[in-house]
Amino acid sequence: MPLTELQISTLVERYARERDRFEKMASTASRHLSAALRDAAVPHVPTFRAKSPESFRGKLERNVEKYELKSFEREFGPTVLDLAGVRALLYRPADADVVCKTIEDLFVVPDGDRFRRHHDNQEGYQAHHRVVQLSVDMLAADPRLANLDGVYCEIQVVTIGDHIWNELEHDIKYKTPDGNPSELQTGLLRVLRTQLNATRGTVAQLMEETDRRRQENLSRIETPEDLQYALRARSGRFLRGDLARLLELLEKVLREVTPAELQRLALGPDDIEAATRRLGVVGLSVDEDDPVLVVAALWEDLGPEFEKVVKSWPGKPGPVSRAVRALAQAGEAS
Question: What is the CA radius of gyration of the chain?
Answer without folding.
Answer: 31
